[in-house]
Write a structure and sequence with these properties.
Elements (H helix, E strand, L loop, with lengths): L1 H32 L15 E4 L5 E8 L4 E6 L13 H7 L1 E6 L18 H11 L6 E4 L15
Parallel strand pairs: 3-4, 3-5
Antiparallel strand pairs: 1-2, 2-4
Length: 156
């Protein structure tokens, strides 16, 4: 009786582990296969500004809060856009924060980037920071790679 119970528990445990492994496999494959649709001149708002990146793509951003405040780059989740930054405008004014909210490639007014990886994002942000003459900045965003790919001297 005890032997049958152990076998049954092992079988259930094996099924759970297998299900978890399948979910992880699907998630990893999804990261490599997923290609968001290009924006193709479609957006709900033209609020904010755009810059031309060195590779020719357009990157859209919204510069809100206190213009003389401490710079903070805000990275929206997916789906989302730079317009999420508008939710924090009044608070940023009060706290003395200059928030730069960006559209990720393929979202809002930012151009799609073919064969893009999550690790490419820091190059776009650093290029915008250079164009805005921001040497050091803080970051706020969704996901584990939000801060890791920036030069430690730039992000505080």
């Amino acid at each position: 009786m005890e032997n049958r119970l152990i076998k049954r528990l092992l079988r259930i445990f094996s099924i759970i582990i297998l299900a978890i492994l399948v979910i992880i496999l699907v998630a990893v494959v999804g990261l490599f296969v997923y290609e968001p649709s290009p924006a193709q001149d479609f957006s709900f708002s033209s609020a904010g500004k755009t810059i031309q990146l060195s590779d020719g793509r357009t990157l859209a951003y919204l510069d809100i809060g206190n213009p003389e405040g401490r710079p903070l780059f805000y990275f929206h989740g997916g789906p989302g856009s730079r317009l999420e930054g508008l939710l924090f405008d009044e608070l940023n004014q009060q706290l003395g924060i200059r928030m730069i909210a960006l559209d990720r490639p393929g979202f809002g007014l930012s151009d799609f980037q073919k064969d893009r990886t999550y690790l490419d994002w820091s190059n776009d942000v650093s290029e915008l920071a250079d164009q805005l003459r921001i040497d050091q900045f803080a970051v706020l965003g969704w996901g584990p790679l939000c801060k890791r790919r920036f030069t430690p001297k730039r992000v505080d």
